[in-house]
């Protein structure tokens, strides 16, 4: 398979199947097609309308059933809500090609690893879990872009039983998309992402619901500016996808919320008591940390 990825003379490019041709799955297909790393691209999923739109946009060449995707594909990426992955893997298993690589793009990994081992058995040796740290508030095939992963981090959490061939191919595919690949343990990934991805979305969504549910919501929203826009942007994401993420990573999210609540109560107490010095110290600490992260990461 690695040789196929290099497009050696006389070799056919691998067939890519994307299950869930939305923002991430569609972008993965577009990036690999542009890089010349895949040949035919097929799409599968529960939304026939999304598949038709994806074909019209040139993201896929053909829409097929899951079983047909398994029969044809050398590479299969699951770009679905994490809650759907166990059932999808079970349906794919009887029809998989002998050396097919499977991967996913889910925002949680420990649950996906457990599901893969349970559903695939020995075939989990070629399932390499992944999570691209990239996204947007827009969803659907129309949001897909071949540039989405350029310069972005993709976390892979390889399994102990993965073959070297499958592990190497998964890394090579993401590098071909322009991404920086980082290898982690599933539990370490889930704990870190609970802090810097899942809890921010949780808070943004709760805040947006609170503002939009106020009696004077229209007035508040008419006065909202760039700060409100930036803070609430991620709350516009897929409710189904984020529900699955919160439930799958519930323990880690609850632990982070507990730590956040303790600091929030401390800061609220300083405000209630008129303790300007303590309030200033926290604000300054946060400002310095944000500036440092922004300059180091390029997200200023």
UniProtKB/TrEMBL annotation:
PROSITE patterns: PDH_ADH. GO terms for biological process: tyrosine biosynthetic process. Signal peptide: none annotated. Keywords: Membrane, Oxidoreductase, Transmembrane, Transmembrane helix. The chain crosses the membrane at residues 13-32. The keyword Transmembrane applies. The keyword Transmembrane helix applies. It holds the Pfam family PDH_N. Residues 14-300 form the Prephenate/arogenate dehydrogenase domain. GO terms for molecular function: NAD+ binding; prephenate dehydrogenase (NAD+) activity; prephenate dehydrogenase (NADP+) activity. It comes from the Bacteria. InterPro entries: 6-PGluconate_DH-like_C_sf, NAD(P)-bd_dom_sf, PDH_C, PDH_N, Preph/Arog_dehydrog, Prephen_DH. PANTHER family: PREPHENATE DEHYDROGENASE (PTHR21363), PREPHENATE DEHYDROGENASE [NADP(+)] (PTHR21363:SF0). This is Prephenate dehydrogenase. It comes from Paracandidimonas soli.
């Amino acid at each position: 398979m690695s040789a196929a990825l290099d497009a050696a003379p006389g070799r056919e490019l691998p067939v890519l199947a994307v299950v869930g041709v939305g923002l991430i799955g569609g972008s993965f297909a577009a990036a690999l097609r542009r890089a010349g790393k895949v040949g035919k691209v097929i799409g599968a999923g529960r939304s026939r309308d999304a598949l038709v739109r994806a074909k019209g946009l040139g993201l896929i060449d053909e829409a097929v059933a899951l079983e047909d995707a398994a029969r044809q594909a050398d590479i299969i990426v699951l770009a679905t809500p994490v809650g759907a992955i166990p059932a999808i893997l079970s349906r794919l298993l009887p029809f998989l090609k002998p050396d097919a690589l499977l991967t996913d793009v889910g925002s949680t990994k420990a649950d996906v690893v457990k599901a893969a081992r349970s559903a695939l058995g020995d075939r989990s040796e070629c399932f390499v879990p992944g999570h691209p740290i990239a996204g947007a508030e827009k969803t659907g095939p129309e949001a897909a872009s071949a540039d989405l992963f350029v310069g972005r981090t993709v976390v892979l959490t390889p399994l102990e039983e993965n073959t070297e061939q499958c592990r190497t191919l998964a890394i090579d595919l993401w590098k071909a998309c322009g991404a920086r690949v980082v290898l982690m343990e599933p539990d370490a990934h889930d704990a870190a992402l609970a802090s810097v991805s899942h809890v921010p979305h949780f808070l943004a969504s709760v805040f947006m619901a609170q503002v939009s549910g106020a009696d004077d919501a229209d007035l508040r929203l008419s006065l909202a500016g760039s700060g409100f826009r930036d803070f609430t942007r991620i709350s516009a994401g897929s409710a189904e996808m984020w529900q699955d993420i919160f439930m799958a990573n519930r323990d880690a999210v609850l632990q982070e919320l507990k730590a956040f609540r303790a600091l929030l109560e401390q800061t609220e107490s300083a405000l209630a008591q008129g303790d300007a010095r303590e309030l200033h110290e926290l604000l300054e600490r946060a400002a310095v940390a944000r500036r440092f992260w922004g300059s180091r990461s390029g997200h200023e």
